[in-house]
Amino acid sequence: MSSDILIHDVIVIGSGPAGMSAALYAARANLDTKVIVGPQLGGQVSITYEIDNYLGIYEDLSGEDLTKRMVAHVEKFGAELIYDEVTGIELDGPVKTVRTYSGELRARAVVVSAGASATLLGVPGEVEFTGRGVSYCATCDGAFFKGHDVLVVGGGDSAMEEALFLTRFANTVRVIHRRDQLRAGPQLQERVFANPKIAFIWNTVIESIDGDRDVTRVHVRNVETNETSTLDATGVFVFIGHYPNSNLFKGILDMDEHGYLQIDDRMRTNLAGVYACGEIADPTWKQISTSVGQGAMAGMAVETWLGALESLPA
Ligand code: NAP
Prior knowledge:
Elements lengths: L6 E7 L3 H12 L4 E4 L26 H14 L3 E3 L3 E5 L5 E5 L2 E10 L3 E3 L15 E2 L2 H4 L7 E5 L3 H10 L5 E5 L9 H9 L3 E4 L2 E8 L3 E8 L5 E5 L2 E4 L3 E3 L29 E3 L11 H23 L4
Parallel strand pairs: 1-2, 1-6, 2-3, 6-17, 8-15, 9-10, 9-15, 10-11
Antiparallel strand pairs: 4-5, 5-6, 7-16, 12-13, 13-14
Helix pairs in contact: 1-2, 1-6, 4-5
The structure holds NADP nicotinamide-adenine-dinucleotide phosphate.
NADP nicotinamide-adenine-dinucleotide phosphate binds next to helix 4.
């Protein structure tokens, strides 16, 4: 992509369910719509093994398949995907500039839907062994652990879904959780407790991850007794939540103390013509359906905003 003097109608930053939904609504309203894809086409959903909580989609659809459908859908209505990442932005004023590695784009409106990323444990060994036993994606890496003993860290829906997925490959899956109760929903809890390959290590945190070339063991501490011990494992799958990808917008867009962008009920940020949707602006719900809903609202809000601008006297 070269520098571009055209002023588009809308640039969508991010290609997860929120951004693609915003792009679909904008493109179907005949707006000239560009989507900067970001580091992962489809966002987090693209690495989800199976979709089963998105209304109407209840069998045999993977995140990868849903991503392909999202791409085909927005392209059918004329949105253009730009396979690049945002490196800089200027969002105030009537014309917004979005810079990428390969050039810059301008538009009258911007939808920020850059999503969220996995939170790290922050213990010694974690970064060193990432890709050599430490993983944040069972769907991506699970097959490498055929016949291995693996650990899953976390007690939420993600940890339980990924633990269930890992039972397809691993010999044993032990879930390490810092409390003695799961945060995951009741249905997932039922499934993990019924799975004979999954065991639980309660009230425990990982203090460090150790190994030679690859992970061989982790050092843990029981938070009730303070007792420490070592567990042999070759895989450590970490699912302890996400943080919003909002660094680029610091000092530009209003955000809460955790970095989630602040929006009103029309997906508006503090800057005119700049909207946000999906997990970057959602500390609570974080579902495909809620992101798609927010994206739809953002797309419609952009259309209304641009329509109102056009009806102003010149
Ligand atoms: P989450 O619900 O925030 O759960 C994170 C888990 O990690 C919690 O159990 C938390 O412990 C634990 N944790 C956090 N920080 C930790 C640390 N430093 N050390 C050890 N443990 C730590 O995150 P999530 O599971 O990624 O889910 C995020 C959202 O996506 C949720 O709203 C969830 O419902 C949704 N989601 C839904 C589905 C589905 O419906 N199928 C699938 C995936 C995700 P505590 O419990 O003690 O806080």
